[in-house]
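User: Predict the full complex structure for these chains.
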Amino acid sequence: DTGVSQDPRHKITKRGQNVTFRCDPISEHNRLYWYRQTLGQGPEFLTYFQNEAQLEKSRLLSDRFSAERPKGSFSTLEIQRTEQGDSAMYLCASSLGQMGADTQYFGPGTRLTVL
Amino acid sequence: AQSVAQPEDQVNVAEGNPLTVKCTYSVSGNPYLFWYVQYPNRGLQFLLKYITGDNLVKGSYGFEAEFNKSQTSFHLKKPSALVSDSALYFCAVRDPGGSYIPTFGRGTSLIVHP
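Assistant: Here is the predicted structure of the two-chain assembly.
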């Protein structure tokens, strides 16, 4: 079990640039989640996939954010035209859906700094 | 709607003493409750969860939590704290009748003094 992995671990970019993050979930997990975490806060939900279908998106997710999970395995989160307010830790989690009581397992996160 | 509160930003305890990190929740029905721990610059690690059954849940690293429906609480406990337990602790709640997305608390920083 290799756990959830995320790449890159750190990203520094200039305002206005586009960035893309990747998440590789635990291999047998069918559900994948993206969260954003800022200092002093818990994870805030962004979006959720079951297999390749994006089933839920937070109202926090502006139209500059897009996520995909094309083959139901890895996922990407893209932020277009980054703003300084996008600076945060972006966390990915995965779970094996079991009657809704499934446990989410988190990756190490990607820390984004927008200059 | 579901919500969770962690009333303490920080908890200080001496090594070897018992520790408690508090969590209260609000859901319309019976909750699913979770505790996670986060070390600096790392993701969240799952500690334990309550789904149904015994109100006392045992988890990783000697931690346990007690579900109290009348007080709508799910406090995290450990009989004897270690310096290595120092970290951020997050409580999360999910309403089984709602979406699959849990709501996380703001976190409590646990500091264990040698």
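Chain A has a mean pLDDT of 92.
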